[in-house]
Amino acid sequence: MTDTATTGRALPHPEPEEIRLESVLHALSDPMRLRIVRELAADEAELSCSHFDLPVTKSTTTHHFRVLRQSGVIRQVYQGTAKMNGLRRDDLDGLFPGLLDSLLAAADRQAGRLGDRS
């Protein structure tokens, strides 16, 4: 599990062959983590942690990002002092074809049904 950051602060990430379906599903089973992934998928760019306005404490937000990173759903790298987050769509699509798109579509349908667009 390695990743190099330009600042020398590396964060551990699972290699694609280490990503497990049950870890991905667990990571996406939490509403806040699913919300983060939906935002990353919609924006299709790396976003800083501070971009996300989650109704939880900073330590809980940090936990959610860590779970997503350790499961292989997102990649985090430092750019200066900002921790940037990107969806590992290529890795996930290669390992589990159609899974991410299906989950995101289901989350969108659920949000519409429940009147929650977050």
UniProtKB/TrEMBL annotation:
Which domain of life, per UniProt? Bacteria
An example of a GO molecular function for this protein is: DNA binding
List the InterPro entries.
Answer: ArsR-like_HTH (IPR011991), HTH_ArsR_DNA-bd_dom (IPR001845), HTH_MetalResp_TranReg (IPR051081), WH-like_DNA-bd_sf (IPR036388), WH_DNA-bd_sf (IPR036390)
- In this chain the HTH arsR-type domain maps to 13-107
Pfam families per record: HTH_20 (PF12840)
Query: Which keywords appear in this protein's UniProt record, sorted alphabetically?
Result: DNA-binding, Transcription, Transcription regulation
PANTHER family registered for this protein in UniProt: TRANSCRIPTIONAL REGULATOR, ARSR FAMILY, TRANSCRIPTIONAL REGULATORY PROTEIN
The protein depicted here goes by the name: Transcriptional regulator
- Native species of this protein? Streptomyces filipinensis
Lineage start: Bacteria, Bacillati, Actinomycetota, Actinomycetes, Kitasatosporales
